[in-house]
Amino acid sequence: MDLQARPTAAGAPIRRWHELTGSDFVGLDRAHTVVLVTSSPIEVHGPHLPVAADVHEGDALLLRCVEKVSQRHPQLDFLHLSPVALGAQVLPHPGSLPFRTSTVERVVTELGEALVAQGFVHIWVSNFHGAPGQFLALEAAAERCNRRHDTRMVALFSLMLGQLNNQTVGLTEGRLREVLGDIPGIPWDRLQGDAHAGSIETSLLLHLLGEWVRPTFEGLPRRTLDEFLAERGTSTAKARSAIAVARGFLDKLAFFSSEIYAGDPSLASPEAGEHIIERLSDFGAETLSAVYRGEIDLTDGHSPLWKKRWLFYNPVISWLFDRYMLSVLRRRSKDLARKHA
Asked: 24 and 91 in contact (C-beta within 8 Å)?
C-alpha cells in the first residue's frame, strides 16, 4: 500500500494524477480543476499508531471534504497528487523523519510553481501535523504562489484553524465544541490535552486503517501536557502575548522530547473516528466552498499564529531549533541501539 489514504471519494470527479497519461492532460479544463495534495510528516505517533498517521489523516480529510464540495459545485473536477511525506518540527524519536521548515516551504512553493506553469489555478494543500513550523510553512508557500502568480492556493489545515479561532490565539471553545462535540464514547472534558496520538488520532486511524493500529492502545494511560507541567511544579501559559505563546511552545517541546503521545488513546473507537472525520469534513467543505465562491478571502486563510510567525519562522531560530531536535533524535537513537546491543 502506498501512502495515500485508503478511502476514495465515492461519486466525486477525482482522478489520481499519477495514473494519468500525457494525453489525459490535454483536455483538462484548468479553470474548473482543483489540484489536491497532502504534505504531512513521517512521525512517531505513540507506541500504537503507524508513523504515517498524519499523511493518512490529512489525505482522508481532504478527500472527504472534496466529496462534499463536489456536491455543492458539480462543475469542478479534481486531480489528486500522491502525498508528499514531508514535515517540520516532528517528535525527536526514532522513526520520525524531520525536515527544515524552509525545506517544506520551498518544496510546496516549487510544486505550486510547477502547477502554475501548466495552467492550474486552484490548489488545495492538506496537512494533519499541528506543529507551527509545518502549517506556517504551508501558509507561506501558498501566500508566495498566490502573490506571485495569482493562484488560489489554500492550506486547508491553517484555513480551518483560522476559521475555528476567528483569527485569535487559542481555540474558541464554543466553535470547536460545535465541530468536535458529542464524539461517541469520548466525553468533552477528556479531550482537553488530546494533542497527539490520543483518542482523536487513534480513533481516526481505527476508522481509516484499523489493522495498522496496535491493540495495545486500549491499555495506554492518559498523558497530557498539563499533567507533565504539574509534575514539574509549573502550569500552562494562558496569556495571549508573544512571550506566552513562545513559552507554551517550549513547554510542548519539553513534553514531546520525552513523550510520544498526548491524550487518552484508550477511549478511541472506529465509530468515534468516523464521527470525527465526518464533522471535520463538514466544516472543511463548508470553508473550502466559501473560499471557492470568494466569500472568504485568501488573505483570511491563515492560522492564528501567522501574525506571530517570527517566533517560529525566523531563520536563526528555526536553524537552532532544527539542530537541537536532531541532537535529541541522535541521542535517543544511540540509547535505543545500546539497549538492543
From this structure: no
